[in-house]
Amino acid sequence: MVVAYIHDQARRNWRELGRTEVVWNNLNPDFVKKFTLQYFFEQSQKLKFEVYDVDSASADLTKHDFLGRVECTLGEVVSAAKLSKLLDGPKKNSGLIIIGAEELSSCKEQVTLQFCGQKLDKKDFFGKSDPFLSISRAHEDGSFTLVHRTEVIKKTLNPTWKSFSIPVRDICNGDYDRTIKFECHDWDADGGHDFIGSFTTTLRELSKGPGDGTVFECINAKKKAKKGKSYRNSGLIKLLYFKIEQIHTFLDYITRGTKIHCTFAVDFTASNGDPKSPTSLHYMNPFRPNPYATAIQAVGNIIQDYDSAKMFPALGFGARLPPDGIISHEFALNGNPQNPYCSGVTGVLEAYHRTLYSVQLYGPTNFAPCINHVARFAAGARNGQDYFILLIITDGIITDMPQTTEAIVNASILPMSIIIVGVGDADFQAMEVLDGDDVRLSSRGKFAERDIVQFVPFRDFMGSNGEDIASVHARLAKEVLEEIPEQLLSYMKRNNIKPQAQPQPGRT
Question: Which of 54, 52, 47, 51 is nearest to 83 (CA)?
C-alpha cells in the first residue's frame, strides 16, 4: 500500500492524507484509492509518498516492511501530468512510483442567459414598477439557494435585462433537469421589494433557446387565489439569449502543454547601499538571506516546478559594468548577454552574488528596458503555448515612469505578467499606480487591455527574527504569485485560445 502525506508549513511537520487499499501479492500494483486536496499555484505544496509491504491488519506502520519513499511537490505532479520517480528505499533498486493528478470537477460549463419581461404587474401607486429577477437552484430537500440577481430596471413594465454568465455548476450543479426558480420583484429602496410573480424551469428547457417554448408566465399565487378564474398571469418572462460554453481552468492549460517562463530582474542602484555594509539591502548575511535572495528563492522555488528545463534568464539594472564603466539597465547576471539563462534557482542566486562584487552600484532606477526585454520574447509566442513572468526586485522610486507605464500598457496584450517586489523603506506609491487594481493604467491615451502587474512590499513579510525562513518564503510566494493564474486565463480568454487537445493514445 501507499501512504500519502502533505507538509504542514505552519506546524512544520508531515500530515497523513490517507492510505491506499492493499494490493496483495503484486510487484506492479495499480491503486484505485485517490487523494483529494486543494491546489494552490502560489504555494509550494510538498507531498510525500511511502510504500509498504503489508504483513498484517495492523494500522501501525512499524508492523509492516518499508519499501521506499519519494518527496515531490503538487506543482511537479500537475505539471508532469504523470510523475515517475525512483523510490528511496533500503535497497539500491527499490522500484518506481508513478503519481498522476487530475482536477476534480464534474462540470466545467458556463451558461450565458438574457431575459426580458412583458406586461408585468404595476406595483408602484404613483408610477410603473422597477423590476428585477432573482434566480435560485433547487436542492434535493426541496429548498432553494439564490445564485444570481439581475440589475434593477427603473419605471417599466417591459424590462430587458442585461445578459449574464454563470457556471452551470452554480445554477444546477451540472444537472440539466434540476429545478431552477425565477422570481420577479418590484424594487423598493427600503428593501421591502414587492413580489410580482415566479415560475420554474430547467436548464434543459432553457437550452431550447429563444422561442415559444421559453416564454414563461409569471404567476403570483396569492393574486391567483384571490382573483380565481379571472387571473391569467402577472406578466411574461421571455428568454432572449442562451449559450453554453466550456470554462477552461489554469490547470487545463498547464496540463496540456502551456509552459511558464520566469525572468528575474535585480536592482543594482546605489540607493541599496554598499553590499559590504550590514545596513545594505544587498548585504550577504551568513545567517539570513537578504531581501533580494529571499524573493528570488521564494518565487523561484514555486516557478521551477512548471519549467521542465529549469533555466531562468536573470537580468540586472542600474549598475556600471566593467571594464569600461558603462551604465546599463538591462545586463545579464551571468555575463553572457547572448545567453542570460541560469541553471535553476541556485544558478540565479550564484550569478546574483557574483555580480554584486563585479559591478559598481549606480543608477537611476529604470524598469522599461527589462520589461521590453521580456516583452520581445512574449511577442513572438502568442499562441498560448508559453506564458512569461518578469519578477522585478527593487528598492527605489522609478525614474522612468512614463516609459515604464508605456511598456506595461504595450505588454498588456501579450502572454505576460509582471511582479514587482519592493524592498527597503522607500515610498512605493508609484508601484501601486502600476498595479492598476484601483485605476486602469494608461499611456498616451491608450489603456492597458489587462491588469498584468502585481506589486508586493517586502517589508510586509519580514516577520520576527525568530520566524522560520521557510514560512517567510511561503507567505511571500503566495502573495506574489496569487494573481498569475487569473492573469494567464484573462490572456487566453481575450484571445480566444483554447487549451491544446489531449494527445490521443498511441500518438505523440
Answer: 47
Check if the beta carbon of residue 170 is closer than 8 Å to that of residue 203.
no
Could you report the average pLDDT of every consecutive run of 10 residues in the chain (508 residues)?
A: 90 88 86 86 93 90 95 92 91 92 74 97 83 90 85 95 92 90 92 92 96 96 93 97 92 92 96 94 91 93 88 97 94 95 96 95 96 98 96 92 96 97 87 81 92 90 66 85 93 94 53
**Are 39 and 45 spatial neighbours (Cβ–Cβ below 8 Å)?**
yes
> What CA–CA distance (Å, rounded) separates 469 from 376?
35
pLDDT at position 309 is 87
Contact 315, 336 (CB under 8 A): no
Residues in a beta bridge with 68? 51
Q: If residue 48 lies in a helix (H) or strand (E), which one and from where to where?
A: strand 46-53
Residue length of the chain: 508
C-alpha cell at 317: 539594472
Alpha-carbon gap, residue 179 to 344, rounded angstroms:
53
User: Which residues, 6 or more positions from 181, have their beta carbon under 8 angstroms from its beta carbon?
Assistant: 135, 136, 137, 138, 144, 198, 199, 200
Structure confidence at residue 123 (pLDDT): 83
Let me know the angle formed at the C-alpha of 332 by 399 and 310, rounded to the nearest 5 degrees. 115
Amino acid 507: pLDDT: 41
Whole-number Å distance between alpha carbons of 308 and 313? 14
Distance from C-alpha of 314 to C-alpha of 331, rounded to nearest angstrom:
8
**Cα 98 off chain centre by:** 26
Query: SS3 for 437-486, per residue?
Result: CCCCCEECCEECCCCCEEEEEHHHHCCCCCCCHHHHHHHHHHHHHCCHHH
Is 141 within 8 Å of 131 (Cβ atoms)? no
Q: What is the residue whose three cell numbers read 501601486?
A: 432
Distance of alpha carbon 287 from alpha carbon 52, whole angstroms = 39
The reported pLDDT for the residue numbered 105 is 53
For residue 365, the one-letter residue type is T
Other beta carbons within 10 angstroms of residue 89's beta carbon come to: 16
φ, ψ of residue 159 in degrees (nearest 5):
-75, 150
Q: What is Dmax (Cα atoms) for the chain?
A: 98
Residue 394's identity, in one-letter code, is T
3-class secondary-structure state, position 18: strand
**Residues 392, 370: contact at Cβ < 8 Å?**
yes
CA distance 440 to 452: 11
Cell readout for 27 is: 510487484
| Beta strand segments in 74-138, E | 82-86, 96-100, 109-118, 131-138
Name beta bridge partners: 18: 4
Tell me which H or E stretch contains 194.
strand 194-201
